[in-house]
TrEMBL record:
It comes from Paraburkholderia caballeronis. This is DNA polymerase III, chi subunit. GO terms for molecular function: DNA binding; DNA-directed DNA polymerase activity. One of its GO terms (biological process) is positive regulation of DNA-templated DNA replication initiation. PANTHER family: DNA POLYMERASE III SUBUNIT CHI.
Length: 138
């Protein structure tokens, strides 16, 4: 069964997600980051600039090198080459999340992110998943 971790009260969810992806990369773990196209572009840009001393190799799922790239950015999971860690930055429950060993849900402080995060939390809970909660700044 997929392990599901909720990271809440994170402030800037994209910046926090950059740190999570960096941590996964440094641990040698492959990750897929899922989001809507516009949010994915913003995350892609932030991965290049969030830390002047770190480089996190990443590309879009459509890239021919995606299977060899540690971090893959995807607007849907049809082309996801890895099934270890899925980091969801989207508003909806990923349709194919159960293919992954681990799902990271990042919930920022914006009202729309909080509402969508609560909906996703209820969805997983109601289906019997054990949910791990990591509240930042608490």
């Amino acid at each position: 069964m997929t392990r599901i971790d909720f990271h809440t009260n994170v402030g800037d969810s994209l910046l926090y997600a950059c740190r999570l992806v960096r941590k996964a990369y440094q641990a040698g773990t492959q990750a897929v980051v899922l989001a809507e196209p516009q949010r994915l572009r913003a995350f892609d840009e932030m991965l290049w600039t969030f830390s002047p001393l770190d480089f996190v190799p990443h590309c879009m799922a459509e890239n021919t090198n995606a299977a060899q790239t540690p971090v893959v950015l995807a607007a849907d999971l049809e082309r996801a080459p890895h099934h270890g860690v899925l980091l969801n930055l989207g508003a909806a429950v990923p349709q194919q999340f159960a293919r992954f060993e681990r799902l990271l849900e990042v919930v920022g402080n914006a009202p729309e992110e909080l509402a969508a995060g609560r909906d996703r939390y209820r969805f997983y809970r109601d289906r019997g998943y054990t949910l791990n909660n990591y509240r930042q700044g608490a």
